[in-house]
Amino acid sequence: MTRAGVSLVIILGIINLLLVLFQVSTGKRWLKVNFIWHRRLGLLLLFTAIIHAILADLSH
Ligand code: HEM
Hints:
- By secondary structure, this protein is mainly alpha-helical.
- It has a domain of 27 residues.
- It is built from 2 helices and 2 strands; from the N terminus they run E-E-H-H.
- Strands 1-2 form a two-stranded antiparallel ribbon.
- Strand 1 and strand 2 form a beta hairpin.
- The structure holds protoporphyrin IX containing FE.
- Protoporphyrin IX containing FE binds next to helix 1 and helix 2.
């Protein structure tokens, strides 16, 4: 599955990497945002990582 020629697995992988960086930065409080965003985006990351893994498995 591609979007503008780029695989959805790749797009989700990049989103997951950015979300992990956000989670560690906010969890360690290097980045100061309302902590509710750490909890919300941590759960979003769980789902995007599962979708990423399923699509990657289906695609080969
Ligand atoms: C993959 C997802 C996540 C990552 C990578 C992550 C990462 C981290 C890190 C690195 C810390 C700091 C730990 C420390 O310095 O001892 C932290 C703290 C914390 N995280 Fe997460 N987190 C994630 C998801 C979540 C979620 C889903 C929740 C809650 C629904 C959550 C709640 C908390 C809480 C309550 C703390 C303690 C904050 C404090 O020191 O007061 N995290 N997290």
